[in-house]
Each structure stands twice: as C-alpha cells, then as structure tokens.
Amino acid sequence: MSSNQAQLEQLTQKKSVVDWFNGLFTQLHLEITDTGEKFTILHHGDRAEVVSGFHDKKPNFIVPLMSENVGNLVRAFSDDKIDAQEEYRIVKFMLMPCLRAALAMPILNNSAVHKIVKIDTHWQEVLLDPSGNEDVQVTIIYVNKQWLVIPGLHGTPNRRLALTPVQLMDFQRRVLAADASGKISDWAALAKWYSDWREEITLQ
Fold first, then answer.
1. Same CATH fold, 98-200 and 3-82?
2. Which pLDDT belongs to residue 204?
3. Dihedral of CA 70/22/41/180: which sign?
4. Measured between alpha carbons, how far is 61 from 99 in angstroms, rounded to an integer?
5. Which homologous superfamily does the CATH classification assign to the domain defined by 3-82?
6. Of 12, 53, 76, 174, which one has the greatest count of Cβ atoms within 10 A?
7. Nearest-CA neighbor of 198 among 169, 171, 179, 177?
8. Can you list the residues of the chain whose pLDDT is less than 50?
9. What is the fold of 98-200?
10. Could you tell me the residue ranges of all domains in the chain?
11. Where are the alpha helices (DSSP H) in the chain?
C-alpha cells in the first residue's frame, strides 16, 4: 500500500471527514498527479471507503491532487475540526470539478431547461477566500451545444458571480440531491432556488 493510499484510508476512518464530505458526493475519482495513482472514494452516508483505481461507474466528479495535498488534508483533519482557511483550501480544488460535473448532467444540457431557468451562456465565477479576496477564477461558456469550463477570466460575460466555500458546498449538495432523486419536481425546486441564489451572488 502506497503512502497516499494509507493516508486516504486514514482519512476515511475519521467521523469528522465522513461528516464533512457527506452530501457532496457518493463516488469520487481522485487522481494523484505526481505519482499517477488513481483512487475511487465511495461515500455511503455514514461511512466512506477507498478503492484502488477508477470504477466503471461514472463518478460525481474527478479531483486531481498532488501527494502534498493529500498530506495537507490529513493535517487539516488531525484535530477533527476545519477552520475557515482549511475549508477554503479544500474547496478550491472542488470548484472546477463540481462545475464540470454539474454542467455535464443531461438536464442541464436541455434547451427547454435553459429557457426556463434563463441560464447564461457565458459567465464567470470567482471563489472568495476567508478575507473576501478573489482567488480561483473560472469562465463558463456554452458553445456548439457543450459547456466549456476554463481557468481564468475571459471575454465579456453575461454576469460575474462570487461565492464562498460554504455557498459552493451548498450548491453541490443541492445538485447531488436532485440528481439522486431524479424527480422533475426536485429539479424544478432546484431551478427556482438557483435563480434566486444566482442573483444573490452576482457581482455584475
């Protein structure tokens, strides 16, 4: 067992870790970019487990990390508490994977849904650090019937959004719950919430 796998196993045995990630994913693919290792993290609600390699089932999202990041995650949860700075460091790695996964869902590629929710075809998102400063910056563009999620700020967007780590996790939990339900009523409720929420975090 590699050092990274041992550390991931250690993390999934901690209740604080299981609770913190609850509702964010049920299956996550984790790629360690400096070693080439691949792991599937399964979250069962009350427990989590690490499996070597990527499962065939489509994950909720894929997160690339370095071995250093895995070690940082272990240290962050060493006291079973996550402060604002630690939370931010974790969530910043999730912003783009969460966006790509959400935008890949069939219902979010439905032209009728686009009209109902009035989804922008070009917007920018920035993640705010604990001091309120913009750090991670992303541009989202719909072109040729597909969504592109691009690092950095590009072009003139329809709107610009700024959100905190807590807001991003809330968004991800709501999307995952609606997807797991599969009910049109739940997606409709999410669409209504999203429209209001989007206005709250719009900068321009």
1. yes
2. 64
3. negative
4. 9
5. SCP2 sterol-binding domain (3.30.1050.10)
6. 76
7. 171
8. none
9. Nonspecific Lipid-transfer Protein; Chain A (3.30.1050)
10. 3-82, 98-200
11. 3-12, 15-21, 67-76, 84-91, 95-104, 111-117, 165-181, 184-200
